[in-house]
Amino acid sequence: MNRRVISKRYLSLAEARDLLEKRMKEEPPPITEQERTWDYLKTFGKGDPEKARKAIENLQGIGLDEVLSVNIVNMCPSTPGEVRLILAMRKELTYNEELVSKILEIVRDYCGS
After folding, report:
1. Do residues 49 and 81 lie in contact, with contact meaning Cβ atoms separated by under 8 Å?
2. Domains recognised in the chain with CATH numbers
3. pLDDT tens per residue across all 113 residues of the chain
4. Angle at alpha carbon of residue 37, lines to 78 and 67, rounded to 5°
5. Which of 19, 40, 94, 105, by CA, is between 20 and 30 Å from 5?
6. How far apart are alpha carbons 69 and 39 in whole angstroms?
7. Angle at 17 between CA 71 and CA 45, to 5 degrees
8. How far apart are alpha carbons 37 and 7 in whole angstroms?
């Protein structure tokens, strides 16, 4: 089976779970790597994939890049301190309390905190 890359984008764990679930239904029995990935995504990829994509787009809309937005959605921070820890991974990023509050608002809508 030949495959080619048509496009590339970062996925949240919920989106990856949904994609793998569909692929496993369409194809023959999963290989070991797919089974391991499926076990991981069942545990950590909870949530609605459509809401996850909307949250990522909303985070990008307030100025965060795609990678950071996906990481925030995957981690679902619930306090300002947790958001600041994630943002601190990007030394070049300057942020204020207003940005942290907006991020928390978007994440609460997705994670239901």
Report:
1. no
2. 13-44 (no CATH), 49-111 (1.10.150.80)
3. 577 888 889 999 999 999 999 988 887 777 888 889 999 999 998 899 999 999 999 999 999 999 999 999 999 999 999 999 999 888 888 889 999 999 999 999 998 74
4. 45
5. 40
6. 24
7. 50
8. 21
